[in-house]
Amino acid sequence: MRLGLVRGARPLLGTVLRPRAAVSAAPARCQALVYAQHGEPARVLHLKDLERAELGHSGVHVKMLAAPINPADINMIQGTYALLPDLPAVGGNEGIGQVVEVGSHVTSLKPGDWVIPADAELGTWRTDAVFSEETLVKLPRDIPLLCAATLSVNPCTAYRMLADFETLGPGDSIIQNAANSGVGQAVIQIAAALGIKTINVIRDRPNLREVVDRLTSLGADYVITEEMLRKPEMKDLFKKVPKPRLALNCVGGKSATEMLRHIQQKGTMVTYGGMAKQPLTVPVSAFIFKDVKLRGFWMTQWKKDQTPNKDRLTGMILTLCDLIHKGQLTAPACTQVPLKDYRIALEASMKPFVSSKQVLTM
Predict the structure, then answer these.
(1) 186, 171: one domain
(2) Residues designated catalytic
(3) 3-state secondary structure 300-327
């Protein structure tokens, strides 16, 4: 089945959508998960056979190896995300690929290199594609595949939030909700490597002990439930660890309000998600008497801001790879699913209390 263009839309990155020309040799083909309208992913996503773009002088032919399913990917397909590609589009914003061939003008990459997207909207849920050189970042090939596939979103978000909003050092503490998320697990590990204590808030659940044990094994200092966060006994915890100067909020609603109660004078709360789909409620006293700062963070925007000069992006990636080499940063728990079984992965990724990230393999 051929895929037609929606009027006014741009072609899919790395894919040519045009009537088949009368040529002697058949054009190269690839498979991709494509959506031509917004809606529930299981309904609007389809595995399509597409014509791959020509290499040209500046193209990079990449064979995709693995690509995770992240909440932002789902929201994009649903049409509820802040950044929406033109339709039809290939799903996926993150993943690891291997360079197969490069155009004659490409200087920074060569066949065999591992690459990840430099920004969102690349469309990684596909077998292979031709991308432009500037849309890719080279990775060392000696890091584990799943670490590479899940590196460019969650660990980068965690790193930037720990580095950009408060000056933290060994012995300082931070508090975060959704601590078992991909970002939360990366925060725990990066903070531990820096000697920063973490107070990690999670929802109560049937397998609570299992989740607590996993986060502790990653380096979490304290793991508490949302209910415990609201109890007077929190005072006892702060006899063992200083009150946090930084709070990382991925939930919103009451969870964020309760975290605000525990941060230090002039502390900062950074919001990077809203899983509860509830607005932030901030007591007036937090502003007047504690002079707290409320900030937001979006990794996609940070990457766009680095477009004129990718040195900060590549420097951060190499720093994270160094942590991986030292065994201080690992991939989140992952379930690998073949691309053809994408519906199984989509269903699992949208279930509540699932701590395993679904990764499509090609």
Answers:
(1) yes
(2) 81
(3) HHHHHHCCCCCHHHHHHHHHHHHHHHCC
Give the end-to-end CA distance of the chain in Å, rounded to a whole number.
20
Identify whether residues 287 and 259 lie together within a single domain: yes
CA angle in degrees (0–180, nearest 5) for 154-227-276? 45
Residue 324, in any domain of the structure: no
Residue 316 maps to a domain:
no
Number of separate domains in the chain: 2
Do the domain assignments include residue 186?
yes
Residue 124 sits in a domain of what CATH number? 3.90.180.10
Cut 0.85: pTM above it: yes
- Both 184 and 294 in one domain: the answer is yes
Nearest CA-CA partner of 299 in 201, 200, 188, 183: 183
- Give residue 25's Cα distance to chain centre: 39
Q: Spell out the residues 6+ positions from residue 233 whose beta carbon is closer than 8 angstroms to its own.
A: none
224, 248 contact by CB (below 8 A):
no
Q: What is the pLDDT along the chain (362 residues), one digit of tens a residue?
A: 334 433 333 444 555 544 444 444 567 899 999 999 999 999 999 999 999 999 999 999 999 999 999 999 999 999 999 999 999 999 999 999 999 999 999 999 999 999 999 988 899 999 999 999 999 999 999 999 999 999 999 999 999 999 999 999 999 999 999 999 999 999 999 999 999 999 999 998 888 999 999 999 999 999 999 999 989 889 999 999 999 999 999 999 999 999 999 999 999 999 999 888 899 889 899 999 999 999 999 999 999 998 888 899 999 999 999 999 999 999 998 999 999 999 999 999 998 777 789 999 99
Asked if residue 234 and residue 119 are part of one domain, the reply reads no
Q: Is residue 304 situated within a structural domain?
A: no
Give the range of the structural domain holding residue 351, as residue numbers without chain letter.
15-150+331-361
- In sequence order, the 6+-apart residues with CB closer than 8 A to the CB of 52 are 14, 15, 16, 27, 28, 29, 30, 61, 128, 129, 130
Give the torsion through C-alpha atoms of 228, 229, 233, 237, to 10 deg: 110
